[in-house]
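Troubleshooting log. The previous structure file for this entry was overwritten by mistake, so regenerating from the original sequence record. Sequence copied from the archived sheet and checked twice against the printout by T.R.
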Amino acid sequence: MTDSTVRRGRAQRRWHLHLILAIAAAIMVVPFVWQILTVFKSTAEVTRIPPTILPHGYSLHSFETFFRTVPFWSMFAVSAGALVLRVGGQVIVAALAGYAFARIPFRARGLLLGVFLAMLMVPSQLFLIGQYGLIRDLKLLDTLPALAIPGLFSAFGTFLMRQAFRGMPDDYEEAARLDGANPVQVFWHIMLPMARPTVAALAVLTGLYSWNDLLWPLIVSPSGENRPLSVGLAGLQGQFGTDYPTLMAGAFVCSIPLVAVFLFLQRQFFAGIAGSGIKG
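Regenerated output below.
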């Protein structure tokens, strides 16, 4: 078999792979395109059967209705504050726990790790009663920290950081100890900077979950003073009817910050996800 035949075969396989990826990408993009088109439609066009694909007139009325109905900036401040607290706290806790599981030998480490991983199979809704009791006893109901405290711990984040630290060579850690660094200095100055891609991936995933969280804010903020944008969007869905152009306009506006953060951290995100699964 000649080299040209081999190259031609590889090119054909690559062509089929690119075609499959293009089709998959189109399937994932279609809902977002439909959302943007719905923003500029009227309610009559949205509910028409058969549905209309392109709006007859491009109007910004849905954006005006959204900003008039939802207190956007106050809810945005709550969402952003809860996201910063939850992401910062979870990254610190998960990094410390993951480093301990990966690099520090202690008694019953495997058993404790198994308990942590078993928590991934338990629905998060089962913890709501205990979490609510804790927040109530701390007198933090209707406060911003109440939105973030339950999200400071994550079994998935701990496992992700543990995988990242396990994949690192021992030479860097040993060299730092020979230079007189204590365990805290080794973690903070040597190991954590090397795990930066995984930290970015964990931050993006945690931020996505925090930004979209709906059930917990409804429970710990009954007065509505500290409710995020996810609650504001849910309030646009009526019992007897929904203004879909306004709802889609709100969803589009609320998704812009997350899209911007993901585009900024996408290289580190994919590197962290890929690198954390090298070693089991």
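DSSP finds 14 helices and no strands in the chain. Archived copy saved in two places this time.
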